[in-house]
Amino acid sequence: MTRVVIVGAGGQARETAWIVAAAYPTWEVCGFVVTDLSRLGPLDSRERVLGDYGWIRDHEAELAGIVIGIGTPRARLKVAADLVAALGGADTPWPSVIHPSVLFDRGSCTIGPGVLVHPGVVATVNVHLGAFAMVNNSCTIGHETRVGRGSVINPGANLSGAVTIGDGVLIGTGAQVLQGLTVGDGATVGAGAVVTRDVPPGITVVGVPARPLHREPAPPSNEPDAPHQRVRP
User: Fold this and answer.
1) Which helix (H) or strand (E) holds 82?
2) HSE, side-chain direction, 13 A CA sphere, residue 30
3) The model's pTM
4) Is the peptide bond before 219 cis (omega within 30 degrees of 0)?
5) C-alpha 158: how far from its chain's center?
6) What was the pLDDT predicted at 87?
7) For the chain, which domains are there?
8) Contact 117/140 with Cβ under 8 angstroms?
């Protein structure tokens, strides 16, 4: 079996198909599947869409692997969980896909199922990438760093040594996480931010140095508070 299907149909799915072709030149990317055909947008590759999850169920025996071509942590984890349930368990084929240009010590690094690593990444020694994590173009990952399940490291981000990235984390483009720090589950580090202290779970940090994002309250509205009120001229 050498056929692979990509989940997703947008730009990330197209990039994923390209990486699969580079990593596994003897495999055939047979097309894209999506969760909901009615939600295909103008930038999706409609001509390559095979169908929804039903297509995978019908052709599972023909597939060497399923690869998630979606670039957000929550969606990567949800798709993985939904497909495992739909296909009946642990035998779902989730290959890790690593572009040939990636540099890492294969003897000491551990790569979970469903991981996607883009071109130009340097991940040195004793690095762990959890299941369904994605590391985008030209990132660096230092020694003893752990990236949790479904987390996404966006292009040009740098994780220093002994960093811990929790599950479902988004590290923005060009962000820096300094030595030995932890970014908790579900947190977001904004593009270009420099993380100089631990980030608690579930919050968004931005800036240099990175600080929690505080949204300004909405300005008072001139609209009436209730239907019976009127604003006089």
Assistant:
1) helix 73-87
2) 17
3) 0.89
4) no
5) 16
6) 82
7) 3-87 (3.40.50.20), 97-208 (2.160.10.10)
8) no
Q: Which of 59, 128, 143, 214 is catalytic?
A: 143
pLDDT value of position 15: 97
In sequence order, which residues have a C-beta less than 8 Å from that of residue 112 and are 6 or more positions away? 96, 128, 129, 130, 131, 132, 133, 149
Torsion 109-113-119-121 (CA) sign: negative
pLDDT tens per residue across span 115-141:
999 999 999 999 999 999 999 999 999
The structure tokens listed for 37 are: 């055909």
Distance CA 136, CA 106 (A): 19
The yes-or-no answer on residue 99 being catalytic is: no
**Strand residues in 60-166 grouped as ranges (E):** 63-68, 97-98, 103-104, 110-111, 116-117, 122-123, 128-129, 134-135, 140-141, 146-147, 152-153, 158-159, 164-165
The 10s digit of each residue's pLDDT in 17-53 is: 999 999 999 999 999 999 989 989 999 999 999 999 9
